[in-house]
Write a structure and sequence with these properties.
Shape: elongated
CATH architecture of the largest domain: 2-Layer Sandwich
Number of helices: 6
Radius of gyration: 19 Å
CATH class of the largest domain: Alpha Beta
Oligomer: single chain
Strand content: 15-25%
Helix content: 25-40%
Distance between the termini: 23 Å
Order of helices and strands: EEHHHEHEEHEH
CATH topology of the largest domain: Alpha-Beta Plaits
Number of domains: 2
Largest sheet: 4 strands, antiparallel
Number of strands: 6
Structural class: alpha+beta
Amino acid sequence: MGTLHGVGRGRPVTGRIDATDARLLLALAENPRATSVALAERVGLSRNTVQSRLTRLEESGAVAGYERRIDPAALGYPLTAFVTTQVTQRRLDEVADALTRIPEVLQVHGVSGQTDLLVHVVAADADDLYRVAGQILAVPGVERTQTALVMRELVGYRISPLLRRRAGT
């Protein structure tokens, strides 16, 4: 089956999601609180098969977790920005570790091109964004940053279209 590389997880994902897995994950995405019995009825599988497939998907890293998506604005962080960051390459792991300690940093992606990292951050207001950007710049190994404020989200994170394609629907 080969190895799939898990984007942003820093570890490989083994195995592949087949059409049945995709139908199961679509049902789960549409109703995250569904029981194994409800999922089994929805996709036409036995409860044991559903549980077995979900366990395999979790163990392989294909399903990374079940954390609910919470709008940062509801927590008092209505501003979203992306901070492109150039780092000293030999300190990349150290920089990534330091960024995990900044609560306003939601995600960090290693990217190709002129910059090394794309850092997704949130802030309470412009002054707070200035503070967060300053914290990132102060991390040992960070050479330069550039901040782009998100004006509005045009397409939110989504996986269902890919699951539908894999499921053949």
